[in-house]
Design goal:
This protein is of the alpha/beta class and about 230 residues long. The chain has a single domain, classed as TIM Barrel. The chain has an 8-stranded parallel beta sheet with strand order 7-6-5-4-3-2-1-8, covered by helices on one side. Helix 3 runs parallel beside helix 4. The radius of gyration is 16 Å and the shape is globular.
Length: about 230
């Protein structure tokens, strides 16, 4: 089993530095957390690139839902190009249709624009109608290596047992990242089930508030829990 890794959401340079000092293995860089995380500015990504040594996964998302219209796809393709130009090698995205199916056309289009960057399918996955078939479908997307999931649209509290059952779906090239209301109490059981990737947002901020900065000591507690 691979050594556990911790990914922390960063919305500022200060977040990134605190996360790295606390032992985080990777950052998910986003903006606008009141909309559940949208594409950050190139300036923020450049500053984080220069401030930390750990990898960055940059969100590609223009709206708080999981749809991708023609204009959205064009905007995201351009954003991917700008991020690639400053050395970004990893992204986070994922699109659904209005009937909660994976929008394969939109995804493959953005894969092409971001190529050859690796990427994470974000929590849009938790809203699909057939998770097992969707995971199999995801295994065919180029450069996709992680699927972020809470096991439920309502978060890890509701979906922890489901996510543990789905650990067996993982392959050598496609792994779960457990996230979406993740708490310290969830980590040991998920590790025992074979899930080795963890994603934290509010849980590593004071009072679990998005307007509070990442707390190095809280990051360290999650990292130690996953060892």
């Amino acid at each position: 089993m691979k050594a556990p890794q911790l990914e922390v959401i960063a919305t500022s340079v200060e977040d990134g530095i605190a996360a790295e000092c606390g032992g985080a293995d990777r950052l998910e860089v986003v903006s606008t957390m009141e909309a559940d995380g949208l594409t950050p500015t190139v300036d923020l990504v450049r500053q984080l690139r220069d401030a930390v040594a750990i990898p960055l996964r940059v969100m590609l998302r223009t709206r708080p839902d999981f749809l991708a219209g023609v204009r959205d796809a064009d905007v995201l393709a351009q954003a991917a190009g700008r991020m690639r130009a400053i050395g970004v090698h990893h992204f986070v995205f994922g699109f659904l249709t209005t009937d909660s199916q994976v929008d394969s056309d939109a995804i493959r289009s953005l894969c092409s624009a971001a190529s050859p960057a690796a990427w994470t399918f974000h929590r849009a996955f938790d809203h699909v109608t057939d998770p097992r078939a969707t995971f199999s479908l995801c295994s065919g997307f180029p450069s996709l290596d992680f699927v972020l999931s809470a096991g439920s649209p309502d978060g890890v509290d509701k979906g922890c047992s489901v996510l543990r059952e789905r650990a067996s779906w993982q392959t050598s090239s496609l792994r779960w990242i457990a996230g979406g209301g993740l708490r310290l109490a969830h980590v040991p059981a998920l590790c025992a089930a074979g899930i080795t990737q963890f994603h934290c947002g509010r849980a590593v901020r004071a009072g679990q508030r998005w307007n509070a900065p990442v707390d190095e000591s809280l990051v360290r507690a999650f990292k130690e829990a996953a060892v």
